[in-house]
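Sequence in, structure out.
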Amino acid sequence: MLVVQLRACPKGATLPLSTTSTLGVDTHRLAGTCCPADLPGLPIGTVLADEAGIDLLRVTGHVLLPALTSPHALACPLLTACVDLPAGEKKLVAHKRGTSLAWITLSDSGHAGLREDKSGPLLASKVQEVLETDHVQGYLLPDNLNRLRALLTHLALVEGYDLILTTGGTGVAPTDVSPEATARVLDYELPGFVQAMMQASLAKTPMGAISRARAGVIGQSLVLNLPGSPRAVLENLEAVLPAFRHTLEKLHGDPTPCASR
């Protein structure tokens, strides 16, 4: 259990949780197994509920902030208020109740505001049809290898997203960099996902053979490259969506034996 001193804030406000007394949501006292070192480890989507079981705050990000009494920066979860919060001390319990999903659209024209991103929101809605999600966030990047590498690493190892999907950049054009960026940060690959998507694509068009998509794991995050067009996104997702839940359960340590065939 975590005991914090809250400042009054309206629903939707986002504030950092810190071990200092200078920030919006302050750690007043720690109890149970929680300690300052655990605070940055609260994964995205974690809910902090009061003793009555009412969700008060949700982890929606993480940030490094300077400390007043130390030369070292503090790694602080960002908490978004689920309800209007009055000032005062609260005893909070952390819960992770669903799947956190990040989707990244790679598009120079989209990033420049010249084209609407339709594939990203579409894939998010399809995932939410089969998985209960506790936090969903989209990102829009230009076709830049290093920026994608950095974002994938951050979303997996700092934010702690369960599922990270990219859309766009899987072909052979000079700007198609998603496979290279993803391969450089994966802990290991999951070729079965790629094979399933390839089979689905080839059933629709021989152009599916051009795809260089990668799939694999970073930390405890499942990462998957999807093509850029909305139609291709749907075709590829349909081939792998049934495997998401089981894969994520195993990544998070589910000891239940896999069902026999």
